[in-house]
Design brief:
The protein is an alpha/beta fold. The chain has one domain: P-loop containing nucleotide triphosphate hydrolases (Rossmann fold, 3-Layer(aba) Sandwich). Helices cover 35% and strands 27% of the residues. A hairpin with a 2-residue loop joins strand 9 and strand 10. The longest helix is centred in the last third of the chain and has 16 residues.
Length: 244
Amino acid sequence: MSDTSLAVAASAPSIGTAAARAVHATKVYGSGDTAVVALDDVTVDLPASRYTAIMGPSGSGKSTLMNLIGCLDTPSKGSYLLNDKQVSEMNDNELARIRNQEIGFVFQTFNLLPRASALQNVELPLVYAGIPSRDRQKQAKDALERVELTSRMAHKPNELSGGQRQRVAIARALVNNPSILLADEPTGNLDSKTGAEIMALFAKLHESGNTIVLVTHEADIAAFAHRTISVRDGQVEKDVRRAA
């Protein structure tokens, strides 16, 4: 275990206060001479109701760490816990269920259904969860209200600006009241003014109690968070915490 990982582990709160925690997590792709160690013995906590940025250059391991946090992958060695549940031991069906219930994903490319309205796009996770239609609509409308987009709920993605599409994507991520809002380069396809508006929205959501994990390679975007975990060569290089 690296000195940095030891420092992170020593400063980490007990598991009961963490939304998520990776413990000695290692991820290896391939085997033998072609094996690639994407994460190397990483221990890091993500406390509930905190705003954390994960930052690193291409190939640093930040995307692998993001996939681990989002239950899109499991460690080759070590463990990952989400709300005290041992995710690293779950099968594919259990992982799919916990992704739907506990993780709200926001992507750079929005990933909206082009023929569906904003409201229908936001409802989608609730459809997968088996929520009745009337309840789905109410929850989706409430989520769109949180991102200040109720006036555009009947519009399809091609009738919305890039910033509005990202607001729809954020509302969709919020609709299940997830434990973690996980945003991957959320301003990557936006101009600087619109990007600043989206980051202001994330700040507002954090102030209302949401746990946010932001993945980025841009220092100015990471600066919006109250903590920045810098990843390089599959390890935590720095863990900087700032006053909220």
